[in-house]
Automatic annotation (TrEMBL):
Pfam families: HAD. The lineage of its organism: Bacteria, Pseudomonadati, Pseudomonadota, Alphaproteobacteria, Hyphomicrobiales. InterPro entries: HAD-like_sf (IPR036412), HAD_sf (IPR023214). It comes from Pseudorhodoplanes sinuspersici. CDD domains: HAD_like. This is Haloacid dehalogenase.
Amino acid sequence: MRMFLMLRLFLVSLFIVFGTVSAKAQTDPLPSWNDGVPKKAIIELVGRVTKEGGPDFVPVPERIATFDNDGTLWCEQPFYVQMAFAFDRVKVMAPQHPEWKTKQPFKALLQGDVKTAATAGEKGLLAVIAATHSGMTVSQFEQEVRDWIKVARHPRFKRPYNELIYQPMVEVLNYLRANGFKTFIVSGGGVDFMRPWAPASYGIPPEQIVGSSGVIEFRLGKNGKPELFKTPKVQFIDDGPGKPVGISMSIGRQPIIAFGNSDGDLQMLQYTTAGSGVRLGLYVHHDDAEREYAYDRKSQIGRLDKGLDAAAKNGWPLISMKSDWKVIFPFEVK
């Protein structure tokens, strides 16, 4: 009888221990995050702004969260994904443009020499974007993006680019939405490039995606059918100081929490944290060369220099990929 009682007590204790662990796992809103300053700051902000009657309560319509995309929600190295799309489009379109065989940076791209193409600088790369992102309707372009995202593979990870979204950030998006937040992408990337695939990856609808854009014209196509036509002219660059402008034009409300990873996000974080009430700006810091990439001040892609200093000055938490994230990509989750 005594042995039976001891065994029963042992089983009960196991149930209590594992039950507690299981309950903790179920109640943890950010299970892919290690306990640390960024995780604590996010959870504390949500708790304060959602506590009715509390001094920091924020009504649901004012709970706005903004996220940069490249380097914040998905991998941006060794070059921006939209540039990879443009480079591939150059090869597809080359038969209709024989002049590209001798014209840089198109010549280098056709030869697979991305380094030489990069020496053309911003002007040359914008010429590539203009050539590969125009001359068709918006719906045609969106289909090109959908077809490409299905077959394109990252040069290092050998996986589709939309599988290289960050699992911890997807959890943040879900956690914020579960607490009444509207989540927006505010990216320097093209809005027409993001809208075909981002809603399925992040749960963010097209109307909540803010990005750079070219001039679009309304035309009457074949048989008088109305269509929107993409031209090579630049309309708006949603980067740096353009991000707060884009937020004002497209959202009409000041965010109370914003996530970025580069100097291009600095003004968005400044704008977000300058308002009254509880506010938070966070930077994703790429410091894990083994699982992803390590870069900040000297990087040509996603440079974090002025933003790194501003984070220290303003008390914006740095999200360390190496220390704060248990996993990086969804396919690592077991």
